């Protein structure tokens, strides 16, 4: 079974509510700030995941470096065994 995770952030609806209550801007896009101390890869908005079988493959992600950028896109590749 494939369970795609679309983001490390809470749905913005809830973040907006928390921000309205607290006024604390540091809670906005918390997941995107996770890589400040330890680098990590975050892939969002992948498509066609339903085309993959339930098992029997590995997924590799090849990131593109964007000059002077803090983010970029990846080439996601399924490798079938």
What are the defining features of this structure?
about 80 residues, alpha+beta, 2 domains, single chain, two-stranded antiparallel sheet
Instruction: Give the strand line-up of the largest sheet.
Output: 1-2
Biggest β-sheet: count, sense, barrel?
Answer: 2 strands, antiparallel
Q: Tell me the strand percentage band.
A: 15-25%
Q: Helix share of residues?
A: 10-25%
SS-derived structural category: alpha+beta
Radius of gyration: 16 Å
**Could you give the count of β-strands?**
2
Q: Termini separation (Å)?
A: 17 Å
Please give the count of helices. Answer: 1
Shape: extended
Walk me through what this model shows:
The chain is an alpha+beta fold and 81 residues long. It has two domains: 8-42, no CATH class; 44-81, no CATH class. It has one helix and two strands, in the order αββ. The chain has one helix at 12-22, and strands spanning 57-63, 74-80. A two-stranded antiparallel sheet has the order 1-2. The longest helix is centred in the N-terminal third of the chain and has 11 residues, at 12-22. The two termini are 17 Å apart.
Topology readout:
Blueprint: H1 12-22, E1 57-63, E2 74-80
Antiparallel strand pairs: 1-2
Concise summary:
It comes from Marinomonas rhodophyticola. With 81 residues, this protein is an alpha+beta fold. It contains one helix and two strands; from the N terminus they run H-E-E.
